[in-house]
Write the structure tokens for this entry.
Amino acid sequence: MKYVEEFRDPAAAKTVLAAIAQITDALKATADAPLRIMEICGGHTHAIFRYGLERLTPPGIEFIHGPGCPVCVLPMSRIDECVEIAERDEVIFCSFGDAMRVPGTGKSLMQAKADGADIRMVYSPLDALEIARRNPDREIVFFGLGFETTTPSTALSIQQATRENLRNFSVFCNHITVPPPIKALLDDPHMQLDGFVGPGHVSMVIGTHPYDFIAQDYGKPIVVAGFEPLDLLQSVLMVLQQIRDGRAEVENQYARVVPEDGNAVSLAAIADVYEPRPSFEWRGLGEIEESGLRIRSAYRAFDAEEKFAVGYGAGPRQSSEPEGCACGQVMTGRIKPTDCAQYGTGCTPELPLGALMVSSEGACAAYYQYGAVYEAAE
Ligand code: SF4
């Protein structure tokens, strides 16, 4: 397949792996004292496991799986608020599929649907807009969720609803931004990170400059990466080359997709519709300043938090995790998914206890999905 095969070329992969091994040896990194490289994006976590990259790279490299899966970092309190809105008689609640099974304190959206709530799975906020046009006597609420990758499409749907004066449409906004949690992790004295593989899709929207602080203020290298195996291997090599040379820079391996200044149209839509919340709660990380977005007052009529009086009006919160769930520790790199006592027993993709097992981008789901393949291969 054109433009894919060349990024999966085994001969080229062996060459890059040899260069990675050479630098790892030169830096004297071992399994006991590895270089800890965080892939921020859940899509990268899955690519690393799908292609077996953590087995192909030397033991002196440890991949730390970061908080870049929006479903995984959503706290239970926000799921509870989704259920509260969805169970109102007048509401049709529209959600992406991967958020349907995330456990709340009481129930997930899937369980609320089974109990009779009118909850519909959609592929785009435009689907929700269409449902609003067809159901003028109902309130249609779109569950806006995700990083800067999905934030623009929700913004465009609000702008469109404004143009059509579609007053029975609103958004329960849970959009979040990538740089603040990276800063929170770097400020954590217990976190030991040597470099980052930066998110490709998010960077397509925001560009590479929002990561400048990682290199300039914290002295850590970051390489924005694509999602094919050679993209990731090359990005790891670029991080290692920076460490070897004593450099800390923002580099862009994914230049075929990521413009350094981002996407101007998307950034304009984001700036028009949203403003930063003073703080937002992240599962496993707690409240992080200016890490979430809320709908500007000019678009208040389309803000489900305003319309249904739920959400952050009551100020910062701290949700609890389900008993026995170690999602927070996994997400901050303190333990691996397999170290969680619930992994594979009390928590499976069919019956997830924590969000990291629900989402297609969650680290626990990646270990579970590809672990059996590794065992069979061995
Ligand atoms: S195995 Fe389940 S409960 Fe344990 S950390 Fe992963 S998602 Fe959370």
Remarks:
- Residues 327-371 form one domain.
- The first strand starts at residue 35 and ends at 41.
- Residues 222 and 250 are 5 Å apart (CA to CA).
